[in-house]
Design a protein that fits this description.
HisK_dim/P_dom, Heat Shock Protein 90, alpha+beta, two-component regulatory system, 5-stranded mixed beta sheet
Length: 293
C-alpha cells in the first residue's frame, strides 16, 4: 500500500508529481480514522504548503466542524426532549399512585390533562424527527384562503380572531402541515394577545403572504430569531402549562422552509409566512422581497 498514488485533484494528463498524494502521506497527514463521535473536536494539522495536502486538510477540518455542530445540536435536542418529557410523566405517575392508594383522591381531569400534554409533546417530537430526516411535502394545490377560514372557525378561541383575505392564494404542499403552521401561530398569538388576534392573507408578486398578529407586547428585536429555536420560551407567560414546550414556532418555521418559504417576526407581534404561489415562477424574487424587512 505504501507509495500507492491517490489523485483527488490531479492535473490534466493524469497523476503526476504535481498534486498527487501517496497513501503513506495521506494517513500521516490525515489521522482521522480514529475520530469518532466522542472526538470530533480533533482537527487535522494544516501545513500551509499551498498544495493538495493543505486543501484536503482544510476541507476535512470544515467537515469535522460541521459534523461536530450537528452532533452537538442532536445531543442538546435529546437532553431538552428528555427534560420536557420527564415533567408530565412524573406528574401523571404521582396522580396514579395517589389514586391507587386513595381512589377518592384521584384527580381524573388532571391525569387526562397530563396525558393530553404528553401526547402532544410526543407528536411534536415525532414531527421534528421527520422534518430533520428530510420529509418533503406532496405536490398538491392548497387554497390558503379556504384553509384560513376553516381553521379559524374550527378553533373557537376565547379571543376573537379577525380574518382579512384580500386575495385568494393557492400554494403547493401539504394542507395538514400548513394548517399546523397556522394553528401554531394562532396558539402563540392567543397566549400573548390582550383582546384580539388578526389573520391576513394577500399576494405579493409571486408569493402568498400570511400574517398572524396580536395586540400584545410583541417580540423584542434581539429575540426575533431566537424565538424560533427549539424549546425556547422567552418569558414567564410561556409556561409549560400555558405555552407548551417551546416547539410550536420551531415546527412552524421548519414546515415553511420545507414548502420553499420563510417565517419571520416582521414587526413586534406580527408573524409573517411567505410561500411561493402555485404555478407562478419566483425566479429573480426572493421570499422576503417586498416584505419591508
Amino acid at each position: 500500500m505504501v507509495g500507492r498514488t491517490l489523485c483527488p485533484r490531479s492535473p490534466p494528463g493524469g497523476c503526476g508529481a504535481t498534486g498527487s498524494i501517496t497513501v503513506d502521506v495521506w494517513f500521516r497527514v490525515f489521522p482521522i480514522a480514529s475520530v469518532d463521535f466522542t472526538g470530533l473536536s480533533r482537527r487535522v494539522p494544516v501545513a500551509g504548503s499551498g498544495d493538495e495536502v493543505e486543501r484536503l486538510a482544510r476541507t476535512t477540518n470544515e467537515t469535522l466542524t460541521a459534523l461536530e455542530s450537528s452532533v452537538e445540536r442532536q445531543r442538546k435536542f435529546v437532553a431538552d426532549a428528555s427534560h420536557e418529557l420527564r415533567s408530565p410523566i412524573a406528574s401523571l405517575r404521582t396522580q396514579l399512585e395517589v389514586g391507587e392508594a386513595h381512589p377518592e383522591l384521584l384527580d381524573v381531569p388532571g391525569a387526562v390533562a397530563d396525558t393530553v400534554r404528553l401526547q402532544a409533546l410526543a407528536a411534536d417530537l415525532l414531527l421534528l424527527a421527520r422534518l430533520d430526516a428530510g420529509e418533503r411535502p406532496p405536490d398538491r394545490v392548497v387554497d390558503l384562503g379556504t384553509l384560513v377560514r376553516e381553521e379559524v372557525v374550527q378553533r373557537r378561541d376565547r379571543l376573537p380572531v379577525r380574518v382579512a383575505v384580500e386575495s385568494e392564494c393557492e400554494v403547493t404542499g401539504s394542507r395538514g402541515r400548513l394548517a399546523q403552521v397556522l394553528g401554531n401561530l394562532l396558539d402563540n398569538a392567543r397566549r400573548h394577545a390582550r383582546r384580539e388576534v388578526a389573520v391576513s392573507l394577500r399576494r405579493d408578486g409571486a408569493w402568498a403572504v400570511l400574517e398572524v398578529s396580536d395586540d400584545g407586547p410583541g417580540v423584542p428585536p434581539d429575540q426575533r430569531e431566537r424565538i424560533f429555536e427549539r424549546f425556547v420560551r422567552l418569558d414567564d407567560a410561556r409556561s409549560r402549562d400555558d405555552g407548551g414546550a417551546g416547539l410550536g414556532l420551531a415546527i412552524a418555521r421548519d414546515i415553511a422552509l420545507r414548502h420553499g418559504g420563510t417565517l419571520v417576526v416582521a414587526d413586534g407581534a406580527v408573524f409573517r409566512l411567505r410561500l411561493p404561489l402555485a404555478g407562478v415562477s419566483v425566479s429573480g424574487s426572493g421570499p422576503d422581497a417586498g416584505s419591508g424587512r
